[in-house]
Specification:
- Strand 1 and strand 2 form a beta hairpin.
- This protein is mainly α and about 575 residues long.
- Helix content is about 70%, strand content about 0%.
Length: about 575
């Protein structure tokens, strides 16, 4: 780690290492579990244990006193059980629906901070439950959405889109592959209320899956655009621009596409774009200039009238952002990152200029270059980063990756010496954790050597949240290394967690709202809530290592709601791993 990184970044460093670990565990556990399932049915055994535990948890949910916890656990259990017991899963989703309806109705008071916090939590549980149901039954998901509809006066519109419309469109995008007709119906219903980016996200999903459904929605979009006010409707110009540039014949119906061009030309004519002065020109006239190449194919004469709105450099002066596709970074870039070349990944940076995205793109390109064995290219990509601090971070990341790629006694000693040279204990700890993760199970002996060294640093830390975080990270990586020490660490940490939970509960309403209806609320923030959430995210490492022992460990939680949630997370991890 760079010596420029200060102690204020301690938690961030540890969290970054753990996040890398959590992303890598599923792939590694998949390999070991898949292999085991072929030899001795280990995956089948783990699956059975997971289902049995899940059924047990589901049977205890109604004993909880918090509607918030009952709703959340019913929702998660329903999603996990669907494949194994659909009838029971539907019952659990119904129970979650009823709890959510009651919770939203009873807590819709914006003047009471505690009540309104509960309202927001139920809103989030509702959104999560909708996603889970949609994965299994699109029609049931729509029924759930409409049954739990929020009161019209409880939700302000954001950029012309209400929460209900946003959820319906998100649902439509999610079910586009499995039920394109229903997705189109939801999209057209939304269009009746106005244009939005979310409609275009749905359009992109359908475009990948179903030509007929795409054509239907395209026609509906053009009909909507034909009656739109391009000057005052913030979405109309951008949606039209995207369709004109990105959805052309023969993919698009030529007749309908021409209707779209004609609608744009008619609007331009009504705004006198051909004659109006620059001082009086609307932004729409500049937008039309960006469409000259497409308009020329249909009406070269009118296209020529917009050329005066183009700068000498040949670029439109429009301040309106053109769409390259809705959510293009999250959807299209991820595909390129997975399957593209280094150059294709780097090309993403030309349209994604924010610092955060630039870092993600460069890191992905470096990873791809390293996978190709082109370390020189990886270093070049890092060295070209404009931000000095992040450039140094990436270069040192490459150095560490190469250092641990093939570990022998000499390289192991070099890693340990590098750690000793770092000025702060928390930096040494984070470096050793990251190095051990890079080595991984391919060299368990070296991995354990580094983990043991990191453990010594953790033991010397001042008692508090950083030390508990460090211990949790160590426990996870020890499990990855197939060492029982991970469970031993957790057995020593859990009593401390129980003490922290009890202390936090006694301070409920002062430092943070940890409780709801007398139970720990699983969405609670604060330091203790963050620790428990971190532990929940790492349940998979313990479940795969030794499921029975992990269940026994969960029984050490003193609060029954935490015991149930811990077991639910273990069952989830077991089923997720066993089915791969």
């Amino acid at each position: 780690m760079s010596q420029k990184i200060t102690i204020s970044h301690r938690s961030l460093l540890i969290a970054a290492v753990l996040s890398i670990f959590l992303l890598s565990v599923p792939a590694r556990s998949q390999e070991s579990t898949a292999s085991a399932s072929k030899d001795d049915g280990t995956a089948a055994e783990l699956r059975k244990k997971g289902v049995d535990l899940l059924q047990s948890v589901a049977g205890q949910i109604q004993s909880l006193s918090s509607g918030e916890n009952r709703a959340r656990m019913s929702s998660i259990s329903g999603a996990l059980l669907w494949k194994y017991d659909e009838k029971r899963a539907r019952e659990l989703f119904t129970a979650a629906r009823d709890e959510i309806m009651t919770g939203l109705a009873d807590n819709n008071d914006r003047d009471d901070a505690t009540t309104f916090r509960a309202f927001l939590v139920f809103k989030q549980v509702r959104s999560d439950t909708l996603t889970r149901i949609a994965d299994h039954d699109p029609e049931l998901a729509l029924e759930f959405l409409r049954a739990t509809r929020l009161p019209p006066d409880s939700e302000p519109e954001y950029y012309g889109l209400s929460t209900e419309r946003a959820l319906e469109l998100r649902l439509a995008s999610q079910i586009a592959e499995r039920n394109p007709k229903l997705a189109v119906r939801l999209g057209r219903q939304s269009l009746a209320k106005g244009l939005s980016y979310e409609v275009m996200s749905l359009f992109e999903q359908l475009r990948k899956q179903d030509k007929e459904a795409t054509a239907t929605l395209f026609k509906a979009l053009v009909e909507k655009l034909k009656s739109s006010d391009f000057e005052n409707d913030q979405y109309a110009g951008q949606v039209a621009t995207y369709l004109v540039k990105s959805f052309q014949p023969p993919e698009a119906d030529a007749v309908i596409y021409r209707e779209l061009i004609s609608a744009l030309l008619a609007s331009a004519s009504s705004k006198n774009c051909a004659t109006v002065s620059e001082d009086e020109a609307s932004s729409f006239c500049y937008l039309m200039a960006s469409l000259i190449p497409e308009i020329e194919k249909y009406d070269a004469r009118q296209a020529h009238t917009f050329k005066r709105w183009v700068s000498e450099e040949g670029e439109s002066n429009s301040e309106i952002l053109e769409l390259s596709g809705p959510d293009s970074f999250s959807e299209q870039a991820n595909e390129i990152i997975r399957n593209g070349t280094v150059d294709e990944i780097l090309a993403l940076g030309s349209s994604n200029q924010s610092p955060g995205r630039e870092f993600q793109i460069r890191r992905a390109a470096i990873t791809k270059a390293q996978a190709n064995g082109d370390v020189a290219r990886a270093r070049k990509i890092a060295a070209e980063y404009s931000d000095e601090r992040m450039r140094e971070f990436l270069l040192q990341q490459i150095e560490r990756d190469e250092m641990v790629r093939a570990v022998d006694a000499e390289k192991l000693a070099a890693i340990q010496e590098k750690a000793r040279q770092l000025p702060k204990p928390e930096n040494r700890f984070a470096f050793l954790l990251e190095a051990s993760l890079q080595i991984g199970p391919k060299d368990p002996k070296s991995m354990l050597t580094l983990l043991n060294q990191a453990n010594q640093i953790a033991d010397s830390m001042k008692p508090g949240k950083p030390q508990v975080e460090a211990k949790l990270g160590l426990a996870m990586l020890y499990c990855l290394a197939k060492s029982d020490r991970g469970f031993a660490i957790m057995e020593s940490v859990l009593p401390r967690l129980n003490e922290l939970v009890a202390a936090a509960a006694s301070l409920d309403g002062f430092e943070n709202n940890y409780l709801h209806e007398g139970e720990w609320n699983m969405s609670g923030g604060g330091g203790v809530g963050e620790l428990l959430n971190e532990l929940a995210r790492s349940a998979g490492s313990f479940a795969v290592m030794d499921f029975d022992r992990a269940v026994e460990l969960s029984n050490q939680f003193e609060r029954p709601e935490l015991r149930l949630m811990a077991k639910l997370k273990l069952a989830e991890a077991a089923l997720s791993t066993a089915q791969r």
